[in-house]
Amino acid sequence: MGIQAIELYQQISSELINEITQICILNACSNSGLVHETRSIFENIQEKTTKIYTTMNTKQFTIDTESDIYIYRPALIQIEFIHKISTIILIEVCHLSKSENSLILWLCRAIFTYMFQIANIIYSWGDLNDELKRFAPYRFFAFSQLKEPIRINLQDKFCEWHCGLVGVNAYGGQK
Known about the structure:
The chain is an alpha/beta fold. It has helices spanning about 1-10, 20-30, 35-45, 50-55, 105-115, 130, 155-165; strands at about 60-65, 75-80, 85-90, 120-125, 150-155.
């Protein structure tokens, strides 16, 4: 994926390159083990922003998904890069190109590849696999990648906390 990312990046007009593009190319290269290429691209970025530095060092994320209210079709993936000033990315899948060569598709894949690394922590409201399985047709990631990060289901944690606080579980029974 790293070599393909570099090839796509080199084809992009300089007027279209922004922080998100730079972050994604750096992540794709570093995650593919292309250390020399990562350093070269980083050194050529004219304006290195706090966002680029922070995003490349983020290890905790939240993911939430939303579906169409009427037919339950996947609609939105919300990703938060957790740090002092969090970065939030919204992926509205109904607006994505169907082309496998789409830059946006490539950027989404780079984001998920970066997030789903060993030792990263992903917080979700519900089981992460359940949250993301409806988005499988978009091929942002392989489900085998979901085994890598530490996954924390906040819904379960909330139920435990709430039951301990009020003495009643989520279904109305006593603890």
